[in-house]
Each structure stands twice: as C-alpha cells, then as structure tokens.
Amino acid sequence: MAQLVVAVSKAEIAIGAKVSRTVRVRRMLRSSRPYLMLLGVVVFFASWYLFVDVFKVWRFKELPGLVPSIKEWVNPNPVYGVSLFTAEYYGHIWASVYRVMSAFILATVLGISVGILMGWSRIFYGLTFPILEILRPIPILAWIPLAILLLPGRELPIIGLTFLAAFFVTILNTLLGVKSIDEVFFRAARSLGFSEKAILFHVVVPGAMPYIFVGLQIAMGACWFSLVASEIVSGQAGLGYKVWETYYYVQFETMVIVMSTLGLLGYLSSALVRMLGNRLMRWRARILAGA
C-alpha cells in the first residue's frame, strides 16, 4: 500500500511539473518578449546586409559581407579552411570552451567563498576589501607578464587570466548579496536557536543567491572577453587566437565566423547559468508569487 501511495505521489509530481512547463510555454508564446527578440535579430542582420552588401555605405563597405560570411561558414570546402564542416573549427571551439569552463568553475567556487566570508566576517572584510579594490581595476592585459611568469606552460596562463576577470565580479556580487540580507532574518534565526553554521547555510547563502547568480552571468561574459585577450597573447589554439590570426592574414569572412561563434557560445553559457539559477531559486519564485 505504501509503495502504491509513493508511486501515485511521484506520478502526481511528474504531471504537475509537465503542466507547469506547458503553462510557462503558453505564457511565453502569448507575451511579446520572444517576438521582440526575434525582431531585434532580424533588424540587426537586415541592417548588416543592406549597409554592407547592398548599399556599401561609407565605412561599412570595408566590413565583410553577410552573405559571403554565411557561405563560408556552411561551405564543406571553405576557402580559408574553417567552417561547420572542418575539424579545425571544432578544435578551436573545444580549446576555448575548456578554458572558459575551467576558469569559470574555479572563479565560482573561490569567488562565492571569499564573497560570503567578506560579508559574514568584519575582520576578513577589513583585511581583504582594500586589496580587492586595488587589484580589481587592473586590466587583464596588464596581468599577462605576471601570469606567464607565475604559471607554467601555455594553458595555465590563459586559464589564470580568464579566471581573474570572473573572480572579481563574483566576489563583489556575492558580497553585495550578503550585505543586502535584512538584519531581521539573523535575529530571528538566532532567537530560534540556529547555530552560526546553520545561519550561514540557511540564511546567508539563500539570501545572497539572487545576487550570486546575477554575478555569475556577468562573470561568464567576463570569461569570454578576457579569454580572447589571453588567447591572442599566449595561445596557439582557440577562438580568440583565431580572431587575431584571421585579421592578420586578411581572412575577414572567417573572422566573422569566429566572432559569431564567440557570441553564440557566450549567449548559450550565460543562458545555462540563468536556467540553473532559476531552478535553484524556485522557492523564491513561489514566495514572490504568494506575495
């Protein structure tokens, strides 16, 4: 009997989740947001085609055309050796994705930990905040000599430089999230007998989570644009390295392909972070809906 009840409960949960997803899809299709997003994309590419390919407006005529770039991208035998059908293309993608994911995971773990400690401990905040504010404004390119000196090989300096951009962003957003928690929650938790460890995991982390995931989305974007600078200087493979190589050898259609790939990967990775955040913060959506 108990097994039957458990099975029925699981079935009800599955049906409820399916209905919830259906409702969300219907709401999205009824709203103007997806259609405005599609219109924005269409306007962008239409403007590119008209300014560059058709009318050749002023300086725009110097840019690579939309049609030649797309043809090169889908060409089984590309002129410059990089398209959807070549192994080199996916080799550069893999090299960049591996570096970004390694740097992002490291920045997430260390950045959230340091940010929570800074918001949780006044002593730790006083010791670390001045150093953070001194180091944070230094451009990524300025760190390149130190990264090459401190980190062995070619791969670690690139990952280290990519990590730095995401690390500072993650710390600051986590710190802001901890500071934004109302003092009432801390007093209520202590009055209920919560230990400091329980307050950390049941008050601080959930309370800071909305800010943390906003910071992680920004950090993901920071990883991608810092990666390009790192690969241009230190890399032998990767999308950033390929951007510079195609510019140097005047392969502008391939340069557009690589830049578009960078944009798509950045968008998809940020969307994955956003989806993960929404899934982990369902409790917050329920609270806001109840309010």
Could you explain the architecture of this structure?
The chain has two domains: 64 residues; 219 residues, Orthogonal Bundle (MetI-like fold). Helix content is 81%, strand content 0%. It contains twelve helices and no strands. Helix 7 runs antiparallel to helix 9 and helix 9 runs antiparallel to helix 11. The relative contact order is 0.10. The N terminus is likely disordered.
Task: Summarize this structure as a short list of keywords or feature phrases.
single chain; 291 residues; mainly alpha; MetI-like fold; 2 domains; 12 helices; 81% helix; 0% strand; globular; disordered N terminus
Secondary-structure map with pairings?
Blueprint: H1 2-30, H2 33-54, H3 66-73, H4 87-120, H5 122-135, H6 144-150, H7 155-179, H8 183-191, H9 196-234, H10 239-248, H11 252-280, H12 282-290
Helix pairs in contact: 3-11, 4-5, 4-7, 4-9, 6-7, 7-9, 9-10, 9-11, 10-11
Give the end-to-end Cα distance, rounded to a whole number of Å: 38 Å
In the CATH classification, which architecture of the largest domain applies? Orthogonal Bundle
Report the order of strands and helices.
HHHHHHHHHHHH
Query: CATH topology of the largest domain, anyone?
Result: MetI-like fold
Judged by helices, strands and strand pairing, the structural class is mainly alpha
Radius of gyration: 24 Å
Largest sheet: none
Q: What's the pLDDT, averaged over the residues?
A: 87
Amount of beta strand: under 5%
Provide the low-confidence segments as ranges: 1-17
- Give the proportion of residues in helices: over 70%
Tell me the domain tally.
2
- In total, how many beta strands? 0
Task: Using the coordinates above, name the CATH class of the largest domain.
Answer: Mainly Alpha
Which homologous superfamily in CATH is the superfamily of the largest domain? MetI-like
What is the molecular shape? globular
Number of helices: 12
